[in-house]
Design the sequence.
């Protein structure tokens, strides 16, 4: 009996191959981790360290929390974080609700105007509305200077609908038939059967949506005139921009400029932290969700 | 006296005060049709005349008269040409310059571009509360970060959502500003032109170079925020110059290059420069300030000056010789500043207010190179536009509303040493500042609460006063400013309006700037510049010249 032929990628690699792979992996990890280290180190560095290193610090000679102290000195950043969390939570929940409903409706053959509505949704992938028309629409809906302006206009994305619709279409039709025979309503089918079976897709789309809401600075910039309503990203942008201007900045008598790079990097840390914390809990759904629709069989 | 350069290719040296009235509107057929009458109007110093301004059917507005405000005796006196007064400390208990009540307790919503993080909300902001109380208004700022202004402003215009008061930075080059002003903002000529401005004494203290920016279509639409007339400076790191034993004030290009060689120590990571110094080199070679006006009335871009290409080539030679930091093309401003502070760059070319920021650092000793001509002749120094921004009032016929707006602008324009100026600079004692050795010093809260954008809205000539800064820096700046005054070179197109420039100058200049960078870095020969300039001309530069010539009738 001849030995079973194994594909190349299942064979035991030679030692040299393993070493090369190991080095390559370490290098790739370093490339990924290095910017994070620089960001965190610079956020903890003193002005002297930043000057000595030409702007960015790999490892500070002395650690300082001054940048964090300055950021959290006062209520602005704290308030902005709360606002961002609120917008992200409400926006993600609302968007997921609308997206799942739309995807379910469009996945079921026989839904009213299913084909026409689907075409209508797909067209929005090809043509963006443009900034000014959206602004005018938000204004005419009376949403300027409200948080709804950050949620309603972008609540439903055709891309997300297609992802979830594709996942729902992959659920065997017999399951739907069995549920209907048992007398389940459409709502019951969606909530008790479709959603539990679509957790991976919903989690991935939810993550996309949450990251989008968390990172959104353009909407607040356009629609929120009151700076006290600004979410973290827009506030962070004003901190970041501050360090790159001198010719027109005001000069406050008797003040030494703060270490702007440290403040900027500290803000990057603060803004990235929630996403970094949330990611590990969603990774188990990621691979399955991301592969949705990748292979048709 | 202002000295205009460009005689090398037949350019005249006329002043700007009259033509600046005609910014906007007077282009094309309208300018040709009304040109003669406008000249008549310009030639009279009084109010207006009979000519139509910018086709509006209204007489050309006169320049507001200048009545210099009473001010405390400076430590070093400035002058009318732009040298700034120097004060050693902020006078305490200054007089009130606005006697009457400014506001009526109503809301005062204003749009302003800012550079820092937004101020804390009203209920937590003692500075804001004090301003509300002093002005008897409920101030409602709409603060737009400077990088986002080009996005937010068009949206507000399109949505007809501009607030009551709008501050427009001049350098933002807002498209079709004269037309926008005519459509959306109040013509203030009746209240500000000529002697009318005297009703608001602090506005009368604003100098002509700043008011020149407020004329749109020949009418006065805004109150300016004055800017020093000085453009860029070449800052020098004193310790490096002392160590190298070279002068911070070279007299010729040869000496400048020799200094750069002496200052550069690449093994130690020390370089003469860390950023491209195009404008400085062009001035050294006697290239005029962006545009020059020939005796026949045509406008010639500085790109066409005979010394333009040689100046860039000389800069490229210096890069090739290794006097520039190897990362010059990619260094960010913050990195350049850090290198300069830590003596790894000997020279830094930056804007006119960088000295204020740098001079706050007690341990930093720096100087500023005086202008020089490449062969030791008479140098050139390019001036700026005279105003940072103009602030306009949304369209209204309500005289009381206009008066309230101008009273607020008057209060904001209070001169240094006044009660109003002190309030704006320091806020509330205890909450925003404390006295240290008899000198008011902003505390943390004071620094945090100040950025409501009021510093960018209106005001007359600026001064130098930095009691907590490095000693003698203000004097050094004053000395430097005095040194360049004889060599000031105005841009004759500075206050003229060209539709083509308004719409395309940014993208067209980028093409030339890219070519300059390629030549500077040695990637392309100097001849590339001529090709880029030709493209600039045919793509809109020639049209700009024509439009400026048509707009220039004063």
Sequence:
């Amino acid at each position: 009996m001849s030995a079973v032929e194994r594909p190349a990628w299942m064979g035991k690699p030679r030692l040299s191959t393993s070493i090369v792979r190991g080095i390559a992996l370490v290098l790739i990890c370093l490339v990924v981790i290095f910017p994070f280290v620089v960001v965190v180190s610079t956020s903890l560095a003193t002005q002297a360290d930043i000057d000595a290193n030409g702007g960015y610090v790999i490892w500070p000679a002395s650690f300082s929390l001054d940048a964090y102290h300055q950021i959290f000195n006062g209520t602005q950043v704290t308030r902005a974080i709360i606002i961002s969390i609120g917008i992200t939570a409400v926006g993600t929940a609302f968007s997921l609700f609308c997206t799942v409903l739309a995807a379910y409706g469009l996945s079921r053959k026989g839904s009213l105007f299913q084909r026409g509505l689907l075409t209508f949704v797909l067209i929005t992938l090809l043509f963006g509305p443009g900034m000014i028309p959206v602004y005018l629409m938000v204004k005419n809906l009376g949403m300027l200077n409200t948080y709804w302006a950050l949620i309603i206009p972008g609540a439903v994305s055709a891309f997300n609908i297609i992802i979830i619709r594709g996942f729902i279409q992959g659920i065997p039709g017999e399951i739907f038939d069995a549920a209907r025979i048992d007398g389940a309503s459409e709502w019951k089918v969606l909530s008790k059967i479709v959603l539990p079976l679509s957790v991976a897709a919903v989690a991935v789309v939810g993550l996309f949506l949450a990251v989008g809401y968390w990172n959104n600075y353009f909407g607040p910039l356009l629609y929120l005139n009151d700076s006290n309503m600004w979410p973290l990203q827009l506030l962070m942008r004003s901190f970041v921009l501050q360090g790159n201007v001198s010719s027109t900045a005001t000069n406050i008598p008797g003040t030494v400029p703060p270490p702007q790079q440290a403040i900027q990097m500290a803000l990057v840390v603060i803004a990235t932290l929630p996403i970094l914390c949330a990611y590990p809990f969603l990774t188990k759904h990621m691979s399955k969700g991301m592969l949705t629709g990748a292979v048709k069989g | 006296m202002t000295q205009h350069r460009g005689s090398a290719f037949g350019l005249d040296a006329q002043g700007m005060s009259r033509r600046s009235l005609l910014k906007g509107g007077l282009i094309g057929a309208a300018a040709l049709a009304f040109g003669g009458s406008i000249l008549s109007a310009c030639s009279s110093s009084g109010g207006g005349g009979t000519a139509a301004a910018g086709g509006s059917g209204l007489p050309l507005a006169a320049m507001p008269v200048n009545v210099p405000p009473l001010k405390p005796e400076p430590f070093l006196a400035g002058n009318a040409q732009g040298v700034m007064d120097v004060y050693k400390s902020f006078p305490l208990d200054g007089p009130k310059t606005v006697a009457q009540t400014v506001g009526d307790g109503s809301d005062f919503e204003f749009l302003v571009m800012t550079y820092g993080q937004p101020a804390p909300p009203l209920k937590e902001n003692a500075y804001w509360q004090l301003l509300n109380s002093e002005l008897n208004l409920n101030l409602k700022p709409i603060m737009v970060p400077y990088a986002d202004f080009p996005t937010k402003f068009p949206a507000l215009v399109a949505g007809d959502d501009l607030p009551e008061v709008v501050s427009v930075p001049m350098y933002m080059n807002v498209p079709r500003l004269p037309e926008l002003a005519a459509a959306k903002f109040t013509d203030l000529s009746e209240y500000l032109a000529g002697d009318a401005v005297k009703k608001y004494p602090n506005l009368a203290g604003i100098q002509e170079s700043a008011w020149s920016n407020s004329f749109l279509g020949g009418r006065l639409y805004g109150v300016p925020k004055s800017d020093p007339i000085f453009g860029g400076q070449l800052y020098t790191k004193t310790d490096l110059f002392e160590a190298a034993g070279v002068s911070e004030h070279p007299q010729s290009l040869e000496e400048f290059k020799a200094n750069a060689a002496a200052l550069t120590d690449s093994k130690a990571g020390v370089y003469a420069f860390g950023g491209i110094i195009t404008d400085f080199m062009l001035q050294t070679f006697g290239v005029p300030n962006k545009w020059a006006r020939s005796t026949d009335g045509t406008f010639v871009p500085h790109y066409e000056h005979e010394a333009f290409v040689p100046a860039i080539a000389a800069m490229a030679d210096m890069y090739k010789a290794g006097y520039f930091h190897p990362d010059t093309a990619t260094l960010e401003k913050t990195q350049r500043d850090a290198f300069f502070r830590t003596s790894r760059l000997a020279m830094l070319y930056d804007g006119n207010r960088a000295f204020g920021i740098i001079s706050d650092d007690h341990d930093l000793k720096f100087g500023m190179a005086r202008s020089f001509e490449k062969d030791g002749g008479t140098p050139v120094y390019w001036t700026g536009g005279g105003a940072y921004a103009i602030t306009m009032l949304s369209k209204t016929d309500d005289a009381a509303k206009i008066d309230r707006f101008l009273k607020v602008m008057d209060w904001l324009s209070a001169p240094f040493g006044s009660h109003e100026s002190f309030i704006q600079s320091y806020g509330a004692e205890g909450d925003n500042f404390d006295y240290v050795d008899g000198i008011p010093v902003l505390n943390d809260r004071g620094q945090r609460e100040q950025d409501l954008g009021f510093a960018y809205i209106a005001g007359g000539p600026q001064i130098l006063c930095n009691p907590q800064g490095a000693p003698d820096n203000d004097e050094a700046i004053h000395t430097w400013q005095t040194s360049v005054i004889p060599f000031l070179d105005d841009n004759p197109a500075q206050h003229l309006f060209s539709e083509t420039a308004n719409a395309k100058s940014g993208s067209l200049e980028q093409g030339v700037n890219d070519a300059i960078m390629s030549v500077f870095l040695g990637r392309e020969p100097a001849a590339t510049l001529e090709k880029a300039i030709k493209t600039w001309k045919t793509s809109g530069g020639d049209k700009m010249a024509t439009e400026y010539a048509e707009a220039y009738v004063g």
Observations:
- The radius of gyration of chain B is 24 Å.
- Chain B touches chain A through 66 residues (CB under 8 Å).
- Residues 1-52 of chain B have pLDDT under 50 and may be disordered.
